[in-house]
Design brief:
Two copies of one chain form a homodimer. With 235 residues, chain A is α+β, with helices and mostly antiparallel strands. In chain A, the strands form three sheets. In chain A, strands 1-8-3-6 form a four-stranded antiparallel sheet. The first copy, chain A, has a four-stranded antiparallel sheet with strand order 2-7-4-5. The first copy, chain A, has a three-stranded antiparallel sheet with strand order 9-11-10. In chain A, a hairpin with a 2-residue loop joins strand 10 and strand 11. In chain A, helix 5 packs across helix 7 and helix 5 runs antiparallel to helix 8. The radius of gyration of chain A is 19 Å and the shape is globular. The C terminus of chain A is likely disordered. The interface between A and B is large, with 47 and 47 residues. The first copy, chain A, binds a DNA duplex (30 and 30 nucleotides) through helix 7.
DNA sequence: GGATGTCGTTGACTTAGGTCAAGCTGCCGG
DNA sequence: CCGGCAGCTTGACCTAAGTCAACGACATCC
């Protein structure tokens, strides 16, 4: 049984937000909620996909193990975000693995529920497609960042995404530990430490898991500057 | 009017291959074919998406211009490949730009055609979703490669994808110029040159736009080895 | 209080890859 | 035949980031 508070969170997910409330509830009535403890695997790379996942609480990372053994973090999801839409009603394997990085409550929507409903409800297909497009777009942005920005600039972007405001000063809370942030950004933890140190020159000070930003606009200018001249723009 | 030879190519695309032949032909009857000369833009980043594209001949690159002005190549498509499925029947903007890198013939499938057919043909929604999933998967692989492999290893992977065989020796033709290959792999042309030079030690010799590979298995071992020890495996 | 463990930082060093400049082809147009 | 140009390679140099090791700050458990 899924509580009404959790239903409210789930209905805001990409998967359900475009559906009529009755329809969303019908989906949720046939789903179950599971709590994973920190470090637990939701599923592994190569397993047959049988569920769409909606995170209700906590943080979940999607990652891949490269042939050489290196772990590449692909995405990190939290409250209200869903994933696995695209492969839920085809017989496919998960191309990534998923792991709870904090204790996490997750709603598992069985693929067969979606498959059954999709015939009578075309909007559901639209929702799946729209959600998948958002993920696609996110990955395109990530590829762009990996190819066009230095590590320190990606760290700045990461902080900017956490900012509640567009200009001026603000303080943000780092959502998960620094090892994972480094993985998400494609750098090593040591490099993340050094990147934070360099960002001091651009008005960022990090203490524990809080980052104070003197000027959001200034930080954005650093993140979007040409890497070749990024160093010279101190202060 | 689209020739029957071109229809045959188009029907092999992800978008159409799962549909009944009559259905695929119905889609094509309402589409048009356009030839773009080298360097011409199919569409720009931020334009409203109104077509799904199927490449019939030539090569097309999808890329993004980062805020700092750098160009990041996201994908390169050729004969029989389609793209833009996910955003075709929602009112969305293209998140990337597309440009013909050789003279290219492309079929443009209007979004409204898809939108009209999807209500009566659920398989079409499946096709869109399946095609989008393939693109998603491709981007996940690309993120993994960027985060877990060195430039030279990505070059090796690129060659392996072109190989017609799984083992032994073979020769492949580089499909487009080296500046674009470098962009696709997220490195500079100079680094690509140096990567080819290093691959000589692993049995690869490049002359003009042909690459001779002494041992596909050996090259794969290099591509999948830990970057830290990749240097020591000189053959 | 002290042993232990995790997480994060710092330093010294090495390597991958970018930058800039020069040079080498092959090709096209005079 | 020559000049100019585009595509590619090479060399010298420099920065970004990985590696390895040491260490500090905390928290937990005994």
């Amino acid at each position: 049984m899924i509580t009404s508070a959790d239903r409210r969170i789930a209905r805001n997910s990409l998967l359900l937000s475009k559906l009529e409330p009755e329809m969303a509830d019908a989906v949720l009535d046939q789903s179950r909620e599971v709590t994973f403890e920190r470090g637990a695997a939701l599923f592994l790379q190569g397993e047959t996909a049988d569920c769409i996942h909606i995170v209700v609480d906590g943080w979940v990372k999607l990652y891949r193990i490269a042939p050489n053994g290196a772990e590449a973090v692909v995405c990190v999801f939290t409250r209200g975000q869903s994933f696995g839409e695209a492969l839920a009603f085809q017989k496919r394997d998960y191309p990534v693995a998923a792991e709870a990085v904090t204790e996490a409550r997750v709603i598992l929507v069985p693929a067969r529920v979606i498959a059954a409903l999709i015939r009578e409800t075309p909007e559901l297909a639209m929702s799946l497609l729209a959600a998948t497009f958002v993920h696609l777009h996110g990955l395109v942005s990530q590829v762009e960042q990996l190819k066009a920005q230095t590590g320190a600039q990606r760290v700045a972007e990461f902080l900017l995404e956490l900012c509640p405001v567009d200009e001026g000063a603000c303080t943000v809370t780092l959502p998960y530990d620094k090892v994972l942030i480094a993985g998400r950004l494609g750098i090593k933890p040591e490099s993340l430490s050094r990147a934070f140190a360099r960002l001091k020159e651009h008005g960022v000070s990090v203490r524990k898991n809080h980052a104070a930003i003197r000027s959001v606009g200034g930080l954005r200018a650093f993140a979007e500057s040409d890497p070749a001249e990024a160093w010279s723009k101190a202060l």
